[in-house]
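User: Please predict the structure of the protein below. I'd like the answer in structure-token form so I can feed it into my own downstream comparison script.

Assistant: Understood. Taking the following sequence of 131 residues as input:
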Amino acid sequence: MRIAKYAPFLAAISFVWATSASAQSPQIAYPNEASRELGDCIASSPTGSDRMLAARWMAASMAASPALADIVTVDAAAKNQADRAMGQLFTRLFTQACRDQAKVLMQANDQAGFTASGGRLGMIAMNELMQ
């Protein structure tokens, strides 16, 4: 299946690009209805442990930034494990839980739609971190 082949790559790009935007704004600007539908599915599909995983991944990713290297250290093995688990989460979301919505964007080659919809998980992660 085409979506499964590209899901990890699209997941990483979508999440990284959208996370910075979603952290700055409580609203996601969806370029179209299909991306809003995928974003809604992404927001409603994660379990409690998925949301915690997203929060831990985001925290580890931010802590690994060179800008924070002098005040935060991140265990490389733990960061690698979080990266892998996050890739598995996005793969599951795009190929199983939200397959139909992701398929519409994939067929349209809608990178902006994937980016915007991926921002919903970024918002969830930030909310988990702030609670």
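That's the full token string. The longest helix spans residues 2-24.
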